[in-house]
Write a structure and sequence with these properties.
Elements: H1 13-22, H2 27-46, H3 50-57, H4 60-76
Helix pairs in contact: 2-3, 2-4
Length: about 80
């Protein structure tokens, strides 16, 4: 299998800094944040606060996507060309 690393393209300084900080957070944090947002949204919906419920419900997907990003950063690490 050919080498999949493209040495012409590297991560920028901002992306490296974000990866460095993101990799320090436990992956479970984002899962719990997503579940918490679902719980808050459901509770608010039951209480009849429709718009506030939707506001918190929209946080679920970004939290889970951040969790996926966090996991990828931990598994793949920083740009392999830097090593």
């Amino acid at each position: 299998m050919e080498n999949l690393i493209n040495e012409e393209r590297e991560e920028g300084k901002v992306a490296k800094a974000i990866e460095e900080q993101t990799s320090k957070l436990p992956s479970d944090l984002f899962l719990y944040a997503g579940l918490g947002a679902m719980g808050i949204s459901a509770t608010l919906k039951i209480m009849g606060m429709k718009h506030t419920s939707l506001f918190f419900g929209q946080w679920v997907a970004p939290f889970l996507l951040l969790g996926i990003y966090n996991k990828i950063v931990k598994v793949e690490g920083h740009d392999k060309a830097d090593e």
